[in-house]
Amino acid sequence: xxxxxxxxxxRNNAYPGRGIVIGKSADGTKxxxxxxxxxxxxxxxxxxxxxxxxxIRTQAYDPAKLKDPSLIIYxxxxxxxxxxxxxxxxxxxxxxxxxxxxxxxxxxxRSREFEPDGPNYTPRISGIMHIERGGYNYAMSILxxxxxxxxxxxxxxFAYESPLKGEGHFIHTYMHxxxxxxxxxxxxxxxxxxxxxxxxxxxxxxxLNEENKVALFVRFIDIRTGEYESRIVxxxx
Length: 237
What we know:
Glutamine Phosphoribosylpyrophosphate, subunit 1, domain 1; 5 helices; six-stranded antiparallel beta sheet
């Protein structure tokens, strides 16, 4: 698979929706995760990321304007021991609770499917990072409708062992803008990861569509020690 320029991928897509990037830093010492949200409606845009324990959650920027919280208020990032979970919905909690009972990543998601927001039927995208004794691997998942038909849920899991330094994988909810929004297709895109946490954060944020971007979270985890640094960027601040 060709390695793509993440900045170009983002600049050339006005509405990828919500996106997860997971990989390894260019120097090979850090596990890298990024999660962003975008929005077209006032309700979707009325959000910020805030710290919540070792993870983050979404909350309304202006509580008075919050309409339906069901699909927009959730914890995108949670940490369970040496595992970091990143998702675009409340399936973060499903994975956390299942893995705490020794279920696998894939088994945890068997109880979930795409979001009930027809006609879009937004895919549920998820990632899991596992760091142990200086080793690092990750997996990504997408649960999607059958080309917009809610009668069938299609489940895909992609696992990456001993990831290469300076690259990662990018999965997002929508192929591009549209009515209805077309679900992501294919396997996660192979992308380059460069720079420090601040340089990487700035690159992703500046590459997202100015009108539609809402919030970004980035974390660099030291593969040897498990210590991490995080950045949050909110359009509403």
